[in-house]
Every structure is written in structure tokens, then in C-alpha cells.
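Sequence in, structure out. Go.
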Amino acid sequence: MTTLASFEYHPTEMPSPFIRLRVFVQPSPYGKKGLKSAAARFALATPETDFKIDEDQPYGEIWMGDHPNGMAHTLDGVPLSKLIESSPEEYLTPSVYHRFGHEKHLPFLFKVLSFDKALPLQAHPDRALATRLMKKEKRETGKNEVFVDPNHKPEVAVTISETFEGFVGFRPTAEIKSFLKVVPELRKVLSDHETVEKFLAAEDDGEEASKLLKIMFSELLGTTHTEIAACSQQLLTHVERGEEESLGGLGARQGLARVIKKVLNDYPEDVGLFAAVFFMNYVRLHKGEGIAVPADCIHAYLEGDVIECMAWSDNMIACGFGAPPERNDPRVFVDMLKYEPLPSENLELKHETWAKSGNGKTQIVFAPMDEFDLLNTKLRKGEEEVVAGGIHGPVVFIVTEGDAVLSLADGQREQLLKQGQVVFVKPNTGYKLKGVTDKVEIWGAFVEAFGECFEDRA
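Output:
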């Protein structure tokens, strides 16, 4: 069997600017099962992936990039990483290659996630912490299997299902205070009553409140399983009796009784219940809406199908909601988090009609990070979108609804793209998309850089 390390690629074998990809399928305990998973259905669209669905298996993710933990391949088996390494200036552009420190890989990692159970309560380290974690693992085990890259991992998620639910970032201080005042079970799991009282008395937007929040959150994650189990059962009893007042006005407005029942069904007696529901922003988005998750930002997606894109990394620290043991480190988790209690609206993504859109059919979704932005093209049958000059950098597209024809801007080299199929488009390739079915939606991740010289990134 040919290994990734030994694979030799000869560029003359693949002249097309449109390179279809076989995605990497990631079974995950939080994924939707079988054909209920959009990720699994999309993977099936490319027969060359050699993927067969097990209706009892949860499928959480597909990866459409060149990270070693989940490599995409061309249809004839070339790892995407080897393609890019063979000629980084051709597949990234000289400007992108220089801008991102002469790294011979995409600056971003593009995914589809499909889940009906909460993902682990998690955060992604910044570059400094990622480097330390890599060194620590190498020192202790002699190799890197968990932390395999030194990069940060800010990310965005955009809803492609009708709705998305999740928890992102710490709630505004005033909201946390309101729960501390009306939810007795929350007070019980926080035994340091002096810190709680100081937090309640602190100014909502002050530095003192953030410091006390960290102390309380650390204490919560260290609460014994016995105490969490008892308080979880008491909370569930109140909720099942229909006692909405036990959650206060905010809990009633956000429908948190239903959320609590779901979380406890997914993860009985888990500290993540109190951490997520009462300390974190509960986010509910509709199709096409998205949210940013900066490095060191606590989050846990709950239910939905999303397009996800992030800086090129697979680094994660988790604690709660089935966190994998090799990534479960409460001390590092508490210390790394940003204790910035802000409404989730501050993290919602903005979009506008893309300046390169020839027919006004494509929106650009701005990511608050350097490594990428997103594109969303919507077409009806027979409608066309033309990007005559192409993109000055790499782009990966996936068709999330309907079928489309992709061609060069002049109509040459047509190929049919069916729902779920993925294509890498080489930089500076003018292209045209034409709707084949009644409704077509295509998402893309891309990065551009202009000019000859960029400082290497720290």
C-alpha cells in the first residue's frame, strides 16, 4: 500500500485547473447516524471515495483539505498535500505562499459538520499554546499524535440546515448573574459562596467580574461527579414539572428547559450542563447565518448541519460533553480561555455581494481572521455566475444543494458537479457556474493575497 510519505507526484499528470476531490469522512460519536448525516450524504456523492454508509454509524464530519489528520485526495488518489507541495506557488500563488510563512499547505481547513448531539465543550489554542502542547507531548511520549501542528485554530460555522443550535463564548455578566440568583442548583455546584457574592456585586463590564468568572468556572469544572449528578437530577425535576420560573425570565425566553432536557439526555450527569447552559451564550441560527469562534473561545455546538472553516490546524483542548481523554485537560482548559463576557451577536458573521461576482449571484462572508473568507453562490435552473478573473489564491468549493455545471469563464472544460461533490480550483482561473436543477447552492473557502512581499507570520 502506498503511504502518504512515500507518494511521488508528477505535476504533468494533472493539467486541469478544476481538481475534483475525494473527501475524508470522520465518524464521530456526536454525528447524525447514517443517511441522516449531511456529511455522509455528501461523501456518497463521489463514488471514488469508496465510502459505504452504515445506518447505525454516526458520521460527524467531512474534511476537504490537506491536513494530515484528515487528508482529501484527488479522484485518482493523489493526496492534496502532495499536489500543493509539488508546486506551492502554482497552487497557492507566490503571494499567498509568502504571506503565510512559506508553508506548503492551504492556510485553511474546510469541513462540513452534521451533528444531533453536543460536541465536546472545547476551545482551540493560540499559536503559543499550540507550540507548547506539541513540545510537551513530544517530550513525554517521544512523538506527536494528538498535537501534530503548531498553528492556532480560529474558526467560523455557517448553518446549512434549517436551524443550528450551540453555545459560543461566555454570556454577558448580567445574564450569568441572573441565573445565579434564580437557579438554586447552580449555586449548589458552586460551593465558594464568597466568590459568587463578589461576582454578583462586581460591575458587569469590569475587569474584576472577568477575574471572578474564571475562578467560578474553574471551581465548577472541579465539582465532584456526585454533586453534579445530584444537582442535575434536581434541575431536571424542576424543568419536567414545568417550573419555568426555576430558570428565570431569560431561561424562559431562550427556551432553555428544552435545551436542558436534550443535554441531559445526551450526557447524563455531565458538568457541561451547568457550564454551557448557564455560563455560555446559547446561539440559535437559521440557514445561511454564521458565527465566528476566535482562538481560546469556549464553545460547544449542539445540533445542526454547518459549513465550518478554520485556520489549518486540528488543535483542541476539551472538558465535558464526552471530551476525548487525550484532549481532556481541565487545568490547561481553564487557563487558556478568554473570559470576555459578551453577547453572541458580537460574533455573528457579516456578508455582502462579492465584488468579483459577474452576475450578482455570490455573497462573500467575511471571516474575522486572515486565513480565509467564504463564498456562497445561489442559482436557479439556467442561471449563471461568472468570475472572469478568477481568485488570486486557492479555493475549495462544495455543492450543498442541487447540481451545477462548472467551466472556464469562456465555457470551455465543462464538468457536472452534483450535490455533495467537492472541487479545488487553481488560482487565477476564471470560472463559470450554471444551475442545472431548480435550486443550487455552492459554498467555497478561499484566500487571496496581493503583492510580491509579505512578512513571514509569527
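Check: The domain at 351-446 is CATH 2.60.120.10 (Jelly Rolls). Confidence is low (pLDDT under 50) at residues 1-6, 453-458.
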